[in-house]
């Protein structure tokens, strides 16, 4: 398919080099965003950090509701231990703010608010049915996947910005989120879903 964003060069233009340079200068185009108030990857990282700090604190507050509603003992235990892990993750984020020389600050994230709002509704609809535990896992995996995308991006940014200590801290949490997600899949497949089949 043609890349419509760039003018095509004639195929047999002998002056064309083999590798087209990726350039951020040159003629103004609709992709030229210079001058519109500079924002850097470091700014995006800081936004993400405030977002995830808000999200983790909110997840920490919401998990007890899920734990109380869960019937399966292995599911309950898994959620409880992930809540303890979440406390450590919040401390890790506070430490990252400290390393950046910034005050730890949370910023409302509409994405996690939406996921948690939906999970509350699902608990109301399914909580006291035999599908309750499946619905809890359904919601919790949405939360884990949200966290995996955020920590994944932030780990990449920190690496690119050469903040290796911060990148290492983010990688630890990223691995915990992935493990939590896998554990939920395991509990769903081995214990919970069949009980909910009609
Ligand atoms: Fe987390
Ligand atoms: Zn956000
Ligand atoms: Fe998590």
The total count of strands amounts to 0
SSE succession: HHHHH
End-to-end span in angstroms?
47 Å
Mean pLDDT: 88
Helix count, per DSSP? 5
Gyration radius from CA atoms, angstroms: 22 Å
User: Which ligands occur here?
Assistant: fe (iii) ion, zinc ion
CATH architecture: Up-down Bundle
β content, as a range? under 5%
Would you identify the regions where 5 or more consecutive residues have pLDDT less than 50? 1-16
CATH superfamily: Ferritin, core subunit, four-helix bundle
Main sheet record: none
So what's the overall shape? elongated
Mind telling me the CATH class? Mainly Alpha
- What is the chains' assembly state? single chain
CATH-derived topology: Ferritin
Summing up helix and strand content along with how strands pair, one would put the structural category as: mainly alpha
The figure for the number of domains is 1
List descriptors.
198 residues, disordered N terminus, binds fe (iii) ion, binds zinc ion
Brief account:
The chain is an all-alpha fold and 198 residues long. Helices cover 68% and strands 0% of the residues.
Characterization of the model:
This protein has helices at 41-69, 73-99, 110-126, 132-160, 164-196. It is mainly α. The protein has a single domain, classed as Ferritin (Up-down Bundle), CATH 1.20.1260. α1 (41-69) packs parallel to α3 and α3 (110-126) packs antiparallel against α4. The structure holds fe (iii) ion (2 copies) and zinc ion.
């Amino acid at each position: 398919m043609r890349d419509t964003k760039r003018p095509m060069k004639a195929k047999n233009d002998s002056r064309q080099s083999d590798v087209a340079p990726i350039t951020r200068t040159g003629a103004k185009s609709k992709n030229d965003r210079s001058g519109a108030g500079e924002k850097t990857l470091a700014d995006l990282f800081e936004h993400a950090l405030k977002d995830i700090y808000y999200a983790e604190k909110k997840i920490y507050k919401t998990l007890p509701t899920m734990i109380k509603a869960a019937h399966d003992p292995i599911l309950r235990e898994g959620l409880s231990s992930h809540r303890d892990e979440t406390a450590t993750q919040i401390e890790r984020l506070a430490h990252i703010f400290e390393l950046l020389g910034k005050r730890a600050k949370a910023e409302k994230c509409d994405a996690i608010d939406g996921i948690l709002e939906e999970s509350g509704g699902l608990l109301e609809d399914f909580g006291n049915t035999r599908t309750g535990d499946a619905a809890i896992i359904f919601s919790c995996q949405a939360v884990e996947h949200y966290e995996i995308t955020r920590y994944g991006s932030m780990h990449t940014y920190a690496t690119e910005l050469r903040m290796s200590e911060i990148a290492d801290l983010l990688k630890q949490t990223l691995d915990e989120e992935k493990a939590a997600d896998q554990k939920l899949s395991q509990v769903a497949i081995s214990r919970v879903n069949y009980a909910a089949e009609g």
